[in-house]
Amino acid sequence: MTESIEVSVAVGVRAAVAAYAQALDAGRTDDLVELFTPDGVSDIAGIGVFEGREALRAAYAGFAPKRPQLHLVSNTVVTSWTESEVTAVSDLAFFLRGKSGWAVQAVGRYDDTLRLHEGVWRFQRRVTTFLP
What we know:
With 132 residues, the chain is α+β, with helices and mostly antiparallel strands. The chain has one domain (3-130): Nuclear Transport Factor 2, Chain: A (Roll), CATH 3.10.450.50. Helix content is 30%, strand content 52%. The protein has helices spanning 3-26, 29-33, 53-62; strands spanning 36-44, 48-51, 69-81, 85-98, 101-117, 120-130. It has a 6-stranded mixed β-sheet with strand order 2-1-6-5-4-3, with helices on one face. A hairpin with a 2-residue loop joins strand 5 (101-117) and strand 6 (120-130). The protein is globular, with a radius of gyration of 15 Å. The mean pLDDT is 95.
């Protein structure tokens, strides 16, 4: 791949990763589901595996925030790519705001496979693991 294509892939992946965190924290379930391919999978350690947009919609609607929350995602690295598929890994920290302010609730990692779908990088599989 040329350098400009490599940069374009990295930018597209980071845009999907950021859009996911922002939609999740805002409770925008439909926006969140649209970030996945029609057969997309979200595998969340200790919670479940959700496949296809209807299952994703039902799961993420149940995760809608009841109080302010924030997913901070960083250190995103594209680990492999072709013209139509990318793998990437990112670190995450999940915060909730309580009476005393913001507090870290969990830290973990996203292992992603994204596919180019209708000209946009979308999650085909997102595996979320949490660190002890």
